[in-house]
Amino acid sequence: MERAAVLRLDAEWAKVRAGRPAASPTERERMLTELISALARHAAGDLSLAARLSLRYGDLARHHFDTGRRTEALIAVDEAVRHCAEPAEHDDEHARWYARALVSQAVYLAEPLSDELGLPRYAFHPHGEQPCAEDRLAGLAAVEATHRAIAVWERLDRSDPRNREGLAQAHVFLGDRLEELGRPVDAAEWAVRAEREFHALWQAPDPAERAHAAVLEHLGDQLERRLRRCPFEGGLTQLHKRELLPERLLPLAVLAARIEGVAPEAIAQGLGLERAEVGRILRARSWRAVWRFDVRRADGRWMPLAHPWRGMDAVTDCTAEAVAADLADAFLTSADVPPPPTPWRFALWWEEEDHLDGSRVRMTSEAFGEPAREPAADPS
Questions:
Q1: At the top level of its lineage, which domain of life is listed (predicted)?
Q2: What is the pTM of this model?
Q3: What is the CATH number of domain 44-120+129-229?
C-alpha cells in the first residue's frame, strides 16, 4: 500500500474514532489492526508516520483497556511510547502525543490500585490489606511514566496554552498515581499545584465552559478526600508551611486534626491560626461519624447489626477516639452484645462507610483475639 493510501486509511479511521460512522468493537479493532500494519511498513525513516503509528497504537491500547484486556493494552501502549520517542524530539505536536502516551501508559499500569469507582483501592493500614508486589511495582512504574510525561511538557513552549494545560493535567495524573500508592500528602500537593495552574491558564473560568467547571470540581473533591487522609504532623502542617494548603480548606484541615485527636492549641500553632479561630471553626463545623458493628455468624461470615449499631450522626468538636469509646461502651451495656465467645467488631469512619482499613477507629471483641481498640493509621 502506498503512503498516500495509508494516509487515506488513517483518515477513515479518524472518522470512525469520532463516531462517524459508528462501528462495533470488533470492527474498530479490525480497522486499527489493518491500519497499524499498513503504517508500520512505511514508518521506518519517516518520523511523521512513526508518530502517527504511535497514535494508532495508543488508540488500540485504549480499545483493549476499555474492553477489559489490560495486558493487551499495556503491550500496545508500550509500542505507542516506543514509536513516538524519536519524533517527539523534532516536533512539538509529536511531543504532545508522546506525553499523552506516557500518561496513558501510567493509567493502565496503575489500574489494579484503583477500585471499580476509580478511587484508591488500598488505605495502606499497617495491618490491613496491601497490594501484591507485582501491583506495587506497576504503581511505581506508573509514577515514573508520569514524571517522564511531565518532563516532556516542561520542555515545550510555555506560551502555548496547550502545553500549559497538558502540564497541569499531567500534574493531576501524578497526584492520582501517588494517592494510589498511599501517599495522600504528596497527592494533595500536586492537586493544589494543578488547580493553581488551571486557574492561571483560564483566568476566571467561564461558568458556561463545562470542561473547566468539571476539572475544577474534580480537583476540589480530590483535595478534600486527600486532606481527610493526611496526618496532622508531617502532613497538614507541612502543606501549610509550604503554602500548599488553600485558605478555603483550612477549616477542613482544622476538623481533620481534631478528629485525629490533636488539641486545639496545637492545631492553631501548626496551621498558623489564632486559638480563638480554631475554637470558632470547631464550634461551627460538625463532622459526620459513620459506624458499623458486625457479629460473626456460625458460618464464619460477618453480619452487620441493625440500627442503632449501624448508623451515622453529626459530631461537633469531638475526636474519633472519643466517639468510638462512647459507641463501644453503649454497645457493651446493651442487650444486643453477643454472648461470649461470639466475635464482634466495630469500625468508625469519617464522612462515609468504606473498607475497614480506611476507618478512623477499629475495635474487636477479645474473643476475636485482637486488641480491644486499634486506631487506624491511615484513614480515608
A1: Bacteria
A2: 0.90
A3: 1.25.40.10
